[in-house]
């Protein structure tokens, strides 16, 4: 057999030995033993061993030795550089040491008395094992009793063996690193608890495999006021608090299998895949609360009290299939937090129905904007000498929902706000008000002014003025036919931009009024500096008139203030004659309310004006 074929024959199956069946065997020892045993048998040598450099590189340690005659493995011999400097020097040249006669070879003769003679070794073939950093060990092939003249096939094969061993080590290191990494992926380093990602995976696994009608539970424990602890005592102490709380929670003794995780900065979570008895959840809730009783010492040697709000999802696993149980427990936790810190709340499936309804309504609202379902109703604002002066109207948004009927602003506005569509909504009403002013003019209906509620989103929009000019031109109406209402909170801040915008509107000839006056905290001096011409007393102060002392006092002072500043005054939400009489007697200029009319469609205004009884009501 020529050398090449000999080498190929020797090498056959070597790689397979290291990576049997492609499996990632974790046990390096088992793998390397297989390799050196095979090497020993194939070369038919007395001993094959693996030696690894110590950390300081000054010695080599035998990590595994196979002895053919005894068919056994040994480990543990150490050789120090100081006892055989020539051998180490040769090793450091990163070359194969092929000592046919080990007893006379310069590189190995240092071993003669202490090693070669006692073991009767005649020949040595030492091959370095490398990793990406360099040589980290060697395999040592030894022939006892007779001398071996190592041929190229044997040397090449030995190098392959060394390479295979190197791969085994590399693979094992990779495995260890991977394990470390997957540990980091699973674990929150601050508390050593599972993190949210892994916690979620764990739940998903149970969902996939568990019997579907078994009840399970997720509890979320959200610390109250944690930001304050962070702000007051700093990041380090805040972390300490989290660690302390995590330890306490981890030590809760419960007659039920559970898994604890930290799912957010200050939120811990319990997962209980099998809840045989609901009472155990109540018990766990009480035990969690107990963990917050003991105060925690601060670096300033004070003690601080902590508390947490607990949200519980409890239900059969099948309920989890489409939904995220952590999210459900989160909703419950949020509710507990809002209601009372330190309390607990169980998730109610009805919330989801509400949520679903809200989402559907949001989607329908977006469609409604384009389907002319958003319209303005008008509520008359009248004066005692009506109708000679002409009435004013307030435009109030309504949604004509194809199935639900008329929807009022109390539902519409929060949706528009959430969706960031307040400006779009305002534009629709503004344009409709202008269009209806044209309609009133064309129908011979005498209207003094139409007032439109302007949101902050509209007011601060840079194209509001341009928009108004466009509508006014399009419908051929006067600017002075429009009035804008802004709520009191809007003028509470001291903003240059606001003054500027109001001035621009006023310069166009548009009247401005302050809506819901008395509910905000606008300063009188601000009011004086703004181009405002009207105040509207909020309905809440009108309700108690003419008997409620404090309403009387507030209404009188608002009227007094308005008069002093030469502002006109409107009372909103007037429902009874007696209220109207009191208001008019006390100097109020205009009355708006169900007493006169509810908000109605533009086409109904003619009928309203024809109805003489409307006057009698005042
Ligand atoms: P607001 O501007 O203060 O309008 C007066 C509200 O009081 C209207 O409610 C009106 O229907 C109601 N109201 C009037 N008289 C009476 C009464 O005698 N009794 C009772 N119980 N209520 C009365 P509405 O139409 O539900 O509007 C509520 C609020 O929504 C409005 O309060 C206004 O702030 C806002 N809003 C309405 N339309 C728009 C709009 O187009 N844009 C903006 N940004 N806000 C609007
Ligand atoms: Mg209003
Ligand atoms: Mg109002």
Give the integer mean of the pLDDT values: 87
The CATH homologous superfamily of the largest domain: EAL domain
Q: Using the coordinates above, name the CATH class of the largest domain.
A: Alpha Beta
Separation, N- and C-terminal Cα atoms: 124 Å
**Structural class determined from secondary elements:** alpha/beta
Question: What do you see in this structure?
Answer:
The protein is of the alpha/beta class. A hairpin with a 3-residue loop joins strand 17 and strand 18 (405-407). Mean pLDDT is 87; it is low at 20-25. The longest helix is centred in the first third of the chain and has 35 residues, at 152-186. The chain has 23 helices and 24 strands. It folds into 3 domains: 3-183, 2-Layer Sandwich (Beta-Lactamase), CATH 3.30.450; 196-349, Reverse transcriptase/Diguanylate cyclase domain (Alpha-Beta Plaits), CATH 3.30.70; 358-610, EAL domain (TIM Barrel, Alpha-Beta Barrel). Strands 16-17-19-20-21-22-23-24 form an 8-stranded mixed barrel, surrounded by 5 helices. Strands 1, 2, 3, 4, 5, 6 and 7 form a 7-stranded antiparallel β-sheet that branches. Strands 8-10-11-9-14-15 form a 6-stranded mixed β-sheet, sandwiched between helices. Bound molecules: ligand C2E and magnesium ion (2 copies). The site of ligand C2E has 23 residues, from strand 17, helix 12, helix 13 and strand 21.
